[in-house]
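Forum: Protein Structure Q&A
Topic: Joint prediction for protein chains with partners

I've read a bunch of threads here and the consensus seems to be that you should model interacting components together rather than docking separate models afterwards. I'd like to see that in practice. Below is the full input, 698 residues plus whatever partners are listed. Could one of the regulars post the assembled result?
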Amino acid sequence: MAIDEKLLKPYDPSTTEQKIYRLWEESGFFNPDNLPNNPREPFSIIMPPPNANGRLHAGHALFVTLQDIMTRYHRMRGQKSLWVPGFDHAGFETQIVYERKLEKEGRSRFEMKPEDLYREIYDFTIENKKYMQDDIRRLGASCDWSREKFTLDPEIVKTVQQTFDKMFKDDLIYRGDRIVNWCAKHQTSLSDVETEFEERTEPFYYLQYGPFVIGTSRPETKFGDKYVVMHPNDKRYAKYKQGDKIDLEWINGPITATVIKDESVDMEFGTGVMTITPWHSKEDFEIAERHKLEKEQIIDWKGKLLPIAGEFADIHISKARHMITEKLKEKNLLLKIDEHYKHNVKVCFKCNTIIEPQIKDQWFVKMRPLADRALDAVNSGKIKFYPDNYEKIFRYWMENTIDWNISRQIIWGIPIPAKICESCKRGYSDLDDKMTTCECGGILRKDTDTFDTWFSSGQWTLLALGYPKSKDLDIYHPTSVMETGHDLIFKWIPRMVIFALYLREEVAFKNVYLHGLVNDEKGEKMSKSKGNVVNPIALIDTFGTDALRIALVVGNTPGTDLSLSRDKIKGYKNFANKIWNITRFVQENAQEGNSSTSELMEEFKKIAEDITTDMENYRFHLASEKIYQYIWHRFADEIIEESKKNDEKGEQTKKILLPIWQECLKILHPFMPFVTEEIWQIINPGKLLMIESWPIND
RNA sequence: GCGCGGUUAGCUCAGUUGGUAGAGCAACCCGUUUACACCGGGAAGGUCGCAGGUUCAAGUCCUGCACCGCGCACCA
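Posted by a regular:
Agreed with the consensus. Here's the joint model:
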């Protein structure tokens, strides 16, 4: 066979990859409509939409690689394979990224017109989206760009608002004064998944409260405390009865306290007595609800004390604590301080500001009935998890989920199509923006809040396929698999299950594959402050996409974090070159004709079957390693060496080289698509490896 | 506190139903007679965290413990 000139030089990814990608894209086969019809069931995967607010990071490279492996494998298996790409406006996250940019420029969103801010963030997002599309292409993603979606596409916005309307009418959404997580820096409420706990060691104060001693770590919230709560079975306080009034001297003068008995009080903790601040504590709020107690705001939305604090009014809580404890000391109300009280403090997951629980009038989703259906779906085996221990984690969370606050006080997001009554505060869904008057006669004003991002991305499998009406939905939903990071097991996965069940009576996906985080070579989490963040595009420039892709996959067990080292990628760059040279040898030495040494092909078939089983079971980390081992250490080291011999066996082996090599390229293709396709173009001009049949196809 | 992972060769990690311990990288020796030095050949390296148990047989199953990581929930 004549040798192709290209093969005489070492493999150069940079000159081939873009050319090959164009070849694929122009073939039209990323769009399954252009694939030959096939009786097999379709395969579908929806890309978790990257937040369009920055550049691709190593985690993106991992998910693109895994999803592309799945898509290419199933396409070669003859399935109508659809991978829908998309991008997320990522409400709060993006707004924060943009606010940091503003901050650097000495600007602030609070000094801008909302519509100007929106326009700027919009432009910023669209620009990022373009870069990310290019980067995803460079990673070799065989996704169908003709179906690309963005969570702010007009039809998506409309659909999301319709979902709100439907849920409102179905009594699954209510408006209410409830405790929310308030970030005073960002001036918005947050859901529980947008907050984190931080361990702090702070002083713990014992205060004289009439005849009682109460303990607190937050004396600055205590101004309005007029209920003193104890356990009904606590013998120490048996002489006090529910509703007893006690006059006592408090921070700013005499008050009257009311005794409340509630079983939620821990008799072992502190003195067994506490006062409550229902406006600024979830637990206290619940006690107040049970006993129908008054609630009063102590801290304003900026974190400053309100007039109820008397002389401390208008002082920020961060400064007030010391001043207040001084005053308590003077009044002999401060009995003791434990300096080393360890507890966890809820903070904003983006800025680490302490979350101030506040009562706020917001929209909430009733989770219980929805979560029950999701649980049923998982319990009846309609959704499988890889690795399977995440099923347990999922179940735990769904069993314990609480109502979901979907209102955000930020501009960057999908507007909530609602009206609020100025007098009675009742809320209505109003899709067409027509309502003007409340049942109570009050004036309705437009809700200025936007949806929590997860409210739209929770509907992602449906939205990406054109819900509510599209043929795609009938063909590709439920999707075959959702592949995403394990950190999204609570934030995202349950919401998609819930929305698909609610809107379409279907699970959103049949399988969930969760990958781990990509850490640096020492196994440490990548972070900008540590300076160990790797840019996947830079790695591609150095080693080639194929090398990066297979390095991300080999040995990367589902659900487990991965340490990515340059040495590993370099090793696979060598592998790409090895493949190149194997091809050269095969071209130079392969002989045509039927080989009598069919046992080599039989041996290969067995390995191919084994690898196929791995692919079917999401064991890409094993499949990739097996084909690597076979190609390098069996085919190259042994079979090729055998074929060099000048005897009958050598002659027979020469005849089997090309058939086996072609099959190897097919199996390797999903993992290393560029180099394999480039070689295919050389040995089978005019044909596309991307749509060749997988060696095992039963 | 509850839960979930992990602990295997110097490093990073595989090891699917229990059947004589694997890879990559690094280190060591030899090799440049044409596919490839981005290479080949060879050798070396592990009481599979600890302690029990089940079994003919345990890295793999069971129990307990230790350490590391992560998640969830919290006490005012």
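The two ends of chain A are 33 Å apart (CA to CA).
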